[in-house]
């Protein structure tokens, strides 16, 4: 129990730390940040439940006003901005990423964690982010989808990094990758 709480807090801190990497502001109000890599790693390393809990803790800290989002943003106002769909999708993305990593045991870890990061950390996240963006900017879903295409190359790199980092951690400290631990 203590170990779980510690890891959940540690990964919430990891997401916050990735927010210190300078964001790239896009004209429509959703920045490119490194924080989605943290969302992917929460799932690939902690697994579905713990990963989602780490992200929920991070979002709770943001909601109470801590400036933990890229660019020092925080407070309830971020949940009324063009990023709202992505923020709502963060814990679900971590959960799906973790679930796939937990269940897909065949083949190399880098592949299962990388594919899980694409499905959970990109596809699922966009499934929430695009409607939120469309709603907040009063755009159609097609227009909002066109806007988020700017994220695809960077998110693909982050998914590959999540796969490689997870595989490297499995190699050096297999017991620390809870998504791969035997139940």
UniProtKB/TrEMBL annotation:
Gene Ontology cellular-component terms listed: plasma membrane
InterPro entries registered for this protein in UniProt: BioY
Any one GO MF term held by the record is: biotin transmembrane transporter activity
Q: Where in the cell is it found?
A: Cell membrane
Q: Which UniProt keywords apply?
A: Cell membrane, Membrane, Transmembrane, Transmembrane helix, Transport
Q: How does it sit in the membrane?
A: Multi-pass membrane protein
Q: What stretches pass through the bilayer?
A: 29-46, 53-70, 76-97, 109-130, 150-170
Which Gene3D superfamilies does the record associate with it?
1.10.1760.20
Of which family is this protein a member? Answer: Belongs to the BioY family.
Q: Which PANTHER family match?
A: BIOTIN TRANSPORTER BIOY, BIOTIN TRANSPORTER BIOY-RELATED
Listed name of the protein: Biotin transporter
Recorded source organism is Aliiroseovarius pelagivivens
Q: Taxonomic lineage of this organism?
A: Bacteria, Pseudomonadati, Pseudomonadota, Alphaproteobacteria, Rhodobacterales
């Amino acid at each position: 129990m203590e170990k779980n709480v510690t890891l959940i807090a540690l990964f919430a801190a990891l997401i916050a730390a990735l927010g210190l990497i300078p964001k790239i502001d896009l004209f429509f109000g959703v920045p490119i940040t490194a924080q989605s890599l943290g969302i992917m790693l929460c799932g690939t390393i902690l697994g579905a439940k713990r990963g989602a809990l780490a992200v929920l803790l991070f979002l709770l800290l943001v909601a109470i006003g801590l400036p933990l989002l890229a660019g020092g943003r925080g407070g309830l106002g971020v949940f009324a901005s063009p990023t709202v769909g992505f923020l709502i999708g963060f814990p679900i993305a971590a959960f799906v990423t973790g679930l796939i990593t937990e269940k897909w045991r065949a083949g190399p870890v880098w592949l299962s964690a990388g594919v899980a990061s694409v499905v959970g950390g990109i596809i699922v996240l966009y499934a929430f982010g695009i409607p939120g963006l469309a709603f907040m900017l009063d755009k159609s879903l097609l227009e909002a989808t066109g806007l988020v295409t700017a994220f695809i190359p960077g998110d693909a790199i982050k998914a590959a990094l999540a796969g490689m980092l997870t595989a490297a951690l499995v190699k050096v400290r297999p017991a620390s990758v809870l998504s791969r631990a035997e139940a």
